[in-house]
Amino acid sequence: METDEMIARIRAAIQRRVAVCDAEGKAAQKAKWLAEERALTLPSHAEALARINFAPEALEGMAIYVTQKVRRMVSAFLGVGGPDPYTTTVLCNAAELGATIRNQAMRASLTDKLPTDEKLSLRRKASDGTAQTQASSTRQALIALGAAHVEGGGRHAALKIDFGHPFVAKLVQE
User: Fold this and answer.
1) Cβ count within 10 A of residue 127
2) How far apart are CA 64 and CA 92, in angstroms?
3) What are phi and psi of 111, to 5 degrees?
4) What pLDDT tens digit does each residue of the chain (174 aa) get?
């Protein structure tokens, strides 16, 4: 897909989110979506997303926090920002676990309050609620970028991360 088409499709998808915010009277949420639109429609960001065949329509089903993670990963790839620390922690632990990380290990990566049998070299000190939210949004962002997929289901579900994906490769290299 060409950069101009990616920009138009990102803008259209986010404008549909903005319209919902308008209809529901959510001005603060609208402002966040508009900020993400400004960033993701920069030619450099849109070009990077086009190169990985990102589907802009995925933005319509994303929470704003997932969209922010997508934008931060694109910015980090381009060298104009960094990923959030929660994503970095999950990626580093997944790399040490052989590219596959179970849901429980993702959460345990993000909170030292959750016991785990996994050997995790990095553990953040967030609350369990924060860990749940961050694990979920990290999973969704990586999947939306085509950098991961879920294997298995239920208690055995695990995220298989593609460390050859250009965005992920750049993030774990730093």
Assistant:
1) 11
2) 24
3) -145, 130
4) 899 999 999 999 999 999 999 999 999 999 999 999 999 999 999 999 999 999 999 999 999 999 999 999 999 999 999 889 999 999 999 999 999 999 999 999 999 999 999 999 999 999 999 999 999 999 999 999 999 999 998 878 899 999 999 999 998 886
Rounded to whole angstroms, the Cα distance separating 7 from 120 reads: 39
CA dist., res. 126 & res. 132, Å (int): 10
* Distance from C-alpha of 55 to C-alpha of 163, rounded to nearest angstrom: 20
Residue 1's identity, in one-letter code, is: M
**pTM metric for this prediction:** 0.94
Cα gap 108→116, rounded to integer Å: 6
For tokens 């085509």, what's the residue? Answer: 146
Closest CA relative to residue 94, chosen from 161, 27, 26, 167: 161
**Rounded Cα distance, 40 and 126, in Å:** 28
Mapped onto helix, strand or coil, the DSSP state of residue 120 is: coil
Q: Where are the alpha helices (DSSP H) in 79-127?
A: 85-96, 103-110
Tokens matching residue 40: 């993701």
